[in-house]
Specification:
Blueprint: H1 2-25, H2 28-46, E1 50-52, E2 56-58, E3 63-70, E4 78-82, E5 89-91, H3 93-103
Antiparallel strand pairs: 1-3, 2-3, 3-4, 4-5
Length: about 100
């Protein structure tokens, strides 16, 4: 009987920790899949290679966001992520590129 109680506590703890991770940090598998989706989206849209940085999770809107840089211009850093309402991927590459080259 004691063994069953300890097993129930362990399983409850694991479920609780998993729930906290999912609520505050999002689905861990989504981090890996979205990084590839962000890179693919940018490469298809602009026909150049990009490096996507660490993915972050917006708990309020349940969306994922990141920063990216083109491989040929590593100092040009811009936003890429999901739209808060539609969950579609969008970016600010054109805007940041215009600002970056006008300030030089």
């Amino acid at each position: 009987m004691r063994r069953i109680k300890s097993l129930i506590w362990i399983i409850s703890f694991i479920l609780f920790v998993s729930f906290i991770i999912f609520v505050f940090f999002g689905n861990p598998l989504k981090y890996y899949t979205l990084k590839g989706e962000f890179e693919q989206f940018l490469e298809e849209r602009y026909n150049e290679k990009f490096n996507v940085e660490k993915i972050t999770f917006d708990i309020m809107h349940r969306t994922y966001h990141s920063k990216a840089t083109p491989e040929n211009e590593p100092k040009l850093r811009f936003y890429v992520g999901q739209n808060n309402i539609t969950k579609e991927i969008n970016d600010a590459y054109e805007l940041e590129k215009k600002i970056f080259y006008n300030n030089d």
